[in-house]
## 1
Amino acid sequence: MIFRPEILSIKDQRMQPFIDPVEIRDLITKTNSEPHHVRDVIAKSMDKQRLTMKETAVLINANDPELITEIKEGARKLKEKVYGQRIVLFAPLYIGNLCTNNCAYCGFKADNLVVKRITLSREELIKQVTSLEDVGQKRLILVYGEHPKYDARFIADTVKTVYSVKSGRGEIRRVNINAAPQDIDGFRVIKEAGIGTYQIFQETYHEETYRKVHLGGIKKDFNWRLTALDRAQEAGIDDVGIGALFGLYDWRFEVLGLLRHTNHFEAVYQVGPHTISFPRLQYASELNIDKSHLVSDDEFTRLVAILRLAVPYTGLILTAREPAFIRDEIMQYGVSQIDGGTNIEMGGYARMKQGEVQDIDFEQFQINDNRSLDEIMVELIDHGFIPSFCTACYRLGRTGEHFMEFSVPGFIKRYCQPNALMTLAEYLEDYAPPETKKKGYHLIRKKLGEMPDDKFKTLLQEKLQRIKEGQRDIYF
Ligand code: SAM
Ligand code: SF4
C-alpha cells in the first residue's frame, strides 16, 4: 500500500498504515549532511524542539567522527538541561513463553523445540512477584509470548494478581505490559486491569525484511502490528511504548521509522508515545537470521544520541540486553528508564534467590548485564544519578506525565526529583545493605542542600522523616 498522508484527513489516518519505504529511503540517500547543517540541527534540538524526519536524516548521515562526537555531546547537554538526574528503574517479568509465531530472531519461536515451555501458574507468579518485591522492585513490565492462552482476559488476570501481592513493606505500584497486539475490545479489557504502558515493538519498519523474519503465526501481518497501538488508543490506552529491534535491517531506516511512528501518534492522537525502546539483537537459542545488519557499539551509541535529539519529550528505555559499559555511556544521553536486577529466565527470579545458575533454554535471548538491583543502585548513585521508583503521576491520574515534565515549568524540580528521592529513601530503609544506605543518604543530603526553596526543602525533609518512621508511599 502506498502511504499518502496528503490525501487522507487526520481522522482517516486513524488505524491506517503510515510507513512509506520510499519516503524513508529517499531521506537516507538524498539528505545532505554538511557540517553546518548538522550543527544547525543540533542547535535546534538544544532549544528542546522536536526534529523533523529530514533534520533527523541530517544527523543520521553525519559520518565524520568529529560530527558524531558533537551529536553525542549535544545529547549529553540536552540531557543535563532538560532531564535532571533521575533514572527510573523497573524489572521485566516473563509470564509465559508459549508462542504460535515464528520470529527468526527469538528463542521462544514455535519451531524451537529445545526451549522449555512454561506458563507461570498463579502460585508461581505470586512467588516471582514476592522475590521481586523482596529486593525492592516497585515497577514491572510483564512479558508474554503470543498464544491463544494469553488472551486479554488472561493478561488482565495476571496484572491483577501482580498488584495483589504484598510482601513485607513491598508492593508493585505500576505494571506495564509487553504482549501481542490485541483488537480494540481486548485492549479495553487490559486497560481496565489498571496497566501503565502497553509496549509493542514493530521489530522492523522495513516491510520486506519484516516478511523475511516473521515466518509464521499472526505476527506475519506487518500492518496488524503497525496499527496495534492505534487500536490501543481507540480503546483508551494513551500510554503506549514503541520500539524497533536493531540488527534486523539498516539502523538508519529504523530510526526514521520510529520517528514516523511518533509523528503519526502526535498528528492523529495529539500525544506521542510515552517511550521508545531500542533493543539490539542478542544471541538466542536456535537464532536464525541474516547477520548483515547487526549494529556495532559505535552505531548503537550514536543512534541513541540521535533519538534523544530528535524526540526530546519521549522517554528512552535501555535494557540489560546491553553490557554495563554500553549502558553507562548511553545513560549520559538522556535515557529515562533502565531495568535492574534483571532475570529473563522463565521462573528465574525465584530460582535466582535459591542460587541456581541461568539456562539459555529457559530464555528468550541472552542478557549482558547480570548485576543485582543493589549493584545497579550503587552504580547510579556513584555516578550522580538519582535512582527512582516513582509512580506518582500514574497513581494520581496525572497522565501524559512525560509531557508535563517539560511543559509545566519547574515540574521536574517540584515533583519528579523529590519523589525520586522519597522512593530512594524507601529503598534505603527497607532493602539496602549498610554501605548502599550510607551512599544513598549522602546523595539525598546533597540534593537537599542544592534546593533553593527553603519552605519546600522543609516540606520534603518532613516527608523523608516520615519515611524513616515507617510510613510508605508518600509523594508530591
Ligand atoms: N511476544 C510478544 C511480541 O513479540 O511482541 C511480546 C514480547 S517479546 C517476548 C519482547 C521483545 O523482545 C520483542 O518485541 C523483540 O523486540 C525482543 N527480542 C526478541 N528476540 C530478541 C533477541 N534475540 N535479542 C534481543 N531482543 C529480542
Ligand atoms: Fe513469540 Fe514474541 Fe518471540 Fe516472536 S518475539 S517468537 S511473538 S515471543
Note: Residues 80-402 form a domain with the TIM Barrel fold (CATH 3.20.20.70).
## 2
Amino acid sequence: MIWVEEIETLPRSGLESIQLKRLQALVHRVYATVLPYRAKMDAAGVKPSDILSLTDLRKLPYTTKDDLRDNYPFGLFATPMDDVIRVHASSGTTGKSTVVGYTAADIDLWASVMARCLTMAGVTRGDMVHNAYGYGLFTGGLGAHYGIEALGATVIPVSGGNSRRQITIMRDFGSTVLLSTPSYALNLADAMADVGVSPEELKLRVGIHGAEPWSQNMREEVERKLGIRAVDIYGLSEIIGPGVAMECLHSEHGMHILEDNFLPEIIDPDTLEPLPYGETGELVFTTLTKEAFPLIRYRTKDISRLFLEPCGCGRTLVRMEKVTGRTDDMLIIRGVNVFPSQVEHVLVGIEGVEPHYQIEVTREGNLDVMAVLVEVSDDIFSDEIKVLENLSKKIQAEIKDMLGVTCKVKLVEPRSIQRSEGKAQRVIDKRKL
Ligand code: DLL
C-alpha cells in the first residue's frame, strides 16, 4: 500500500508551504532553461523572484495547447534530451501531436502518484490488476503499468481490444482489479454476457475508469453489470498522464488531486480570472515536481469544480468534481482525443471535397461511432459511383492515418450541409453519456 500519510493528511497550511517552495524552484528553473517560458514571463513583466506566495501564481502567464504546438516537438522541454528516457504523445489540434517527455525521476514520480491513486481504490500487493488501457504513445497503459508495479501488485499488461481473450484472462488469472475506459468496461460486460460468463465467475472487485467523460448513470451500469465498485481516475498527458486525481472509496463524489505535485486552479474561461473554491470553470494545472516537461498554469479546457469539504478517508487534498465537459470542441472517440480541426486538416488536402463537413458521433452498443459527412464538389458529384466510393475510402484512410480512429464517411450533395450564420456547427454528438 502506498499512502503518503504525512502529505495526504497535512493541514492545508503545511501543504501550501510545500507547494510554495516547489513552485518557486520550478519557476526559477523554467525561467533559466526554457526560452519560450522566459519570453512569455518577460512579456508579462514577471520575474521568478516575484513569486513570494501561492497567490503570486496569478502573475504568471497561462500555457495552452497552442504553446505546445508552436514549440513542437521538444521546444518546451526543460532538460537536455540526453536526460529524457521516454516520450508519449496525444492528439494536438491540427496535424501535430502533443509530445511530452519524462526523465528517469519523472517516470519514478509518475509510478508513485499512480500507486497512490491505486491505493485510494483499495488496491494492494496481492491484487491481480488487469490493465486494459492502451499501451503505446497513449499514456494510459504504460502510466498505469508502472504504478501497479511500484505498488507491488501483479500487472496483466493486456492493453485494449480482443474482448473475448480479455474475459478468458480475467477468469483464468483471477483478475481482481480492472483498469479501462468506462466505455470499454461496458463493452467487456456485454461480451461476457455474449459468451455466457457471469460476473460471479470472476474475482473482480473494483474498476478504475477514466480517460473519457462518464456519467453517474454509466457508473451504476458498470457496477451492476460487472458486480464491482467503479471509481473515477483523471489525468492528461501534458500534466503526467493518469495519476493526477483519483476518487477514493469513501468519496461520494469528486477525486482527490495529488496537490503536492499538481497545483490546480479553476478559472473563468472567458475572463481568465481565477475562481474561488466551489465555482465551476476551466481546470488549470501547474506541475510542481516534473523535470523534463514542466507546465506552468496549463489550461486543460476541462470543466470542473474544486472543493475542500473533508472526506471520510482523512485526506486533506482538494477534490475535483467529475469532469462535466470541455470549453473547446475536443471529442473523445473510443478513448482517442479528436479535434474537428484535424478532420478539417485532412479534408482540405483532398481534391474534390468542399470545406463543408460535419462530424456525427453516436454510440452503438457501448462503442463510439464517428461519421464524417463531407460535401463533394459539383464535378465529383456527377461522377460515377466508383469514383465516389474511392474518394470516400481515401478520406477514411487519411482520417485513420491522422487520428488513429476508423470513421464512416458519408459523401453528401454540394450545398446540403446547413450553412450557419455564426460559428459553424461541426459536431453533432448524439451519445447520451
Ligand atoms: O486520457 C490520461 C488518462 C489515462 C487518464 C487513463 C485516466 C486514465 P490524454 O489522452 O492526454 O490523457 O487525454 C486527456 O482526457 O483533458 C480529459 O478531457 C479527458 N479525461 C481524462 N480522464 C478523464 C476522466 C489521458 N476521468 C483528456 N473524466 C483530459 C473525464 C477525462 N474526462
Note: The CA atoms of residues 269 and 282 lie 6 Å apart.
## 3
Amino acid sequence: MKNFYLTTAIDYANGSPHIGHAYEKVLADAIVRSRRMEGIPCHFLTGLDEHGQKVQETAERRGLAPQELCDSVALDFQNLCRRLSIGYDDYIRTTEQRHKTVVQNLLQQLHDAGEIYRAPYRGLYSTRAERFVQEREMVNGRWPDDIGEVVEVEETNYFFRLSRHREWLIAFLEKNKNFVVPAFRQRQVLEFLREPLNDLCISRPKVRLRWGIELPFDPDYVTYVWFDALVNYISAVGHGTEAFSQNWPADLHVIGKDILVPAHAVYWPIILHAVGMELPRQILAHGWWLAKGGEKMSKSLGNAVQPLDYAELYGPDAFRYFVLREMTLGQDSNFSHELFLARYRGDLANELGNLLSRLVHMVHRYCGGRFPAAGAAGEEERHLQNLAAETVRIARGFYGNLEFSSALESIFSLLKAANRYAELRAPWKLAREEGRTSELARALATLGEALRIAAGLLIPAIPTAAETILQRIGAGPVADWRNLAWSDALAGAEVGDEVILFPRVEEEDALSPL
Ligand code: MSP
C-alpha cells in the first residue's frame, strides 16, 4: 500500500528556527499522527534548503565554509523538531548526494526534451526572494517586503519554458478544484495565471554564485534556488528507484502562503508535468504568525517569538496545543502572550490537567488505586456517553479536513462536560456518605472513560501529555480511532502516581516582550 506522503517546506539554512518553522512542523506532525490513528501508513519528510546566495553570504560574514554553516543550522533545526516531538521519518538536506543526483538527472531530462534553453537576460533581481521579479509585482509603486531591494542585472542564463505550459496548468486547476487548500488560495493561483508567464530563469553563473548544484550540461553554472529546493520532494523518496512509488505522488505539501505562488503552485506542477510525472495530490498553504499588533515578526524588531523558550517553560505540548488551537486554517494569526497564558491555564491546566489529578487522587483515596466497574448508567452518564461518541465522530471529521482548531474545540467541550459532571456528582461528597458506594464507583468510572476518550483524541496535538494521561489512568494505548468507543476498559485498571500535567509557571515574565 502506498504511504500517505506528507512534506513541509524545507527551511533556509541561513537563520535560526522561529515560530513559523515550528508551527509548520507541528501542523504537519499533527496531520501525520491523525492519519496514523485512522490506520493509514505515512511517510513524513522535512528538511533543510542549504544552497543559495544568502547561505553563501551568511557563511562568508561569519568566516565559515558554507557547509559548516549548514551543518550547524541543521543541528538547530533538528533539535527544534526533537524538542517539539516532531516525528519525521526522513530529513533531507539539499547538499546530500542523493539530492544532487536527482536534481541533475531532472535538469538533463528537461534539457534533452528541449524544455531548457540558453539566452541573454536583462532583468530586475531580488536577492531576498532569490529570483528575477517583474514590475507588476510592485504594490503602490513599492516592492513588497518579501522582495525587498531590487537591482538590474544582465547576464546569459538558462531558462525553463514555463510559459508553454500555462494553458495546461489553468485547465488542470479548473478540473482539480481542491489542488490548493484553502479554496481562496487556489483562486489566487488562477488569478496569477491570468497574465502570460515569463520563462523561468533556472541558473546562476558560478562567478556570481558558487554555492549550488552544477548544471549537468554546463559546468560554468549552478541551478537557481527553486529548481534545487522543490526537487527535494522527489529526491528524498528515491526518484528513479523502485521504492519511489511507495511514496510518490505526495499526498500533501504543507507550506506557508508566501511560497505558494508562483513556486509551489506554478513552477512545481509545471516542472513535473514537463517530465511526465504525476503531480502531488494537494497543497496546503497555511497563514502566517504575526506579532501581537499584527505586524511581521522579525529579529530586528525584537518581536519574534522563540518557540523553544515556550517549549522550555511550558512544555512542548503547550506550544503545540496553542498554535493548533489558535490558528484557523489558512488565515494569519497574532501570537500574544496573554492568549497563550489563557489557553495554558484555562484549557490545559484547568480543564485537562485538573481532571486528571483529581481523578487519580480520588481513585487512590476511595478505591485503593484501582478503577471500579461502572455498573448501570443513569441519565447523566448516558448523556456523557453520547457526547463522547459524538465527539469521536466530529473530531475525526475535523482532523480529516485539517481543521485542528475545531477538532480541539470539540474535544475540550467533552472535557468541560466531564468537569461539569464531576461537580454535579461530587464523588468527594459521595465518599463521605453511607451506602453510596455504587454511585461513587459509577461516577469515577464514567469520568475515567470520558478522559480516556478525550486523551485518545488529543494524541495528534499533544502526544506526550496524552500518553501520560493514558498511563496514569491505567488505560492501554489508544492506537486506532476506528475502535475508540465508550467501554468498561478501565474497570480494574491500576492508576499511577498523581501528577500535575501543566503546572503553574513562575518565571513566565521572562517571555514578556509580547
Ligand atoms: N526554503 C524555502 C522553502 C523551499 S520549499 C521547497 C523557504 N524557507 S523559509 O525558511 O523561509 O520558510 C520555511 C517555511 O516557514 C515556509 O513554508 C514559510 O511560509 C514558513 N514561515 C516562515 N515564517 C512564517 C511565519 N511567521 N508564520 C508561519 N509560517 C511562516 O521559504
Note: Residues 317 and 463 are 7 Å apart (CA to CA).
## 4
Amino acid sequence: MIVSPSVLSCDFGNIERETKMLDDSKADWLHIDVMDGNFVPNISFGFPVLKAISKHTDKTLDVHLMISNPGNYVDEFADCGANILTVHYEACVHLHRTIQHIKSKGMKAGVALNPHTPVSVLEEIIGDLDLVLIMSVNPGFGGQKFIDSSVNKVVSLKKLIESKKANVIIEIDGGVNLETGKKLSDAGANALVAGSFVFNSDSPTNTIEKLKQL
Ligand code: DX5
Ligand code: ZN
C-alpha cells in the first residue's frame, strides 16, 4: 500500500520538524492539500508553504488542488516541486487540456472526484491519467467521517481501469484509518491518504507503518 500522510493535520508552527519526521518515516508520499476558500469552504496554504515543505524532503509531493480554475496554476505548482498534481473533476471545464498541461511539465496527473461524482465521468479520460483520487469525505477539512459508499466507488473504478487496460493508481482521501483502510485495500485501493489518524496518534511513524501493511 502506498501511504500519503496529509500535512494538513500537522503542526504548522513546526513545519520543518514535521516534514523531516515524515521524510524519515515509511511514508511513500507527502499529501499536500491546497484550498482556496472558493472551490471548498476553507483556505489552507499555497506556494510558499509548498516550497518550504519541499526543501525538507526528497519524498514524492502528492499535491491535491481543491481550488477553482486549477489549470491556471499548473506551471507554478511544477516550479514549487509538485511531483503529482491532482485537480478536481468538478473544477475543470477543460479537463483534457489541464491533464496534458500537467504531464507536459513532467508531473504525474491525477483527477479527484467529490463524493457525489460517479466514476463513469472518467470513461473518456482514464487512459490519460496517472492517478484517480476518490474523496471519501466532502473536501475542505480534515477529521471528517468516512463515507462508506466510497468503497463501492473503488470497485467501480478498478473495473473501469481494467476495462480500458489503463495503468492508473487508485488513491483514497478522507476518514482513512486502519478499519476503513482495510476495506479500501480489499476493494483494490493502491494509495491511502491519512491526516488526523496519523497526526493524532501517539506515534505517527508507527501509524504510517501499520497503514503500509494493509
Ligand atoms: C480533505 C483533504 C484531506 C484531509 C484528510 O479535504 O483533502 O487530505 O487532510 O484528512 P483526514 O485523514 O483527517 O480525513
Ligand atoms: Zn487531500
Note: Residues 2-212 form a domain with the TIM Barrel fold (CATH 3.20.20.70).
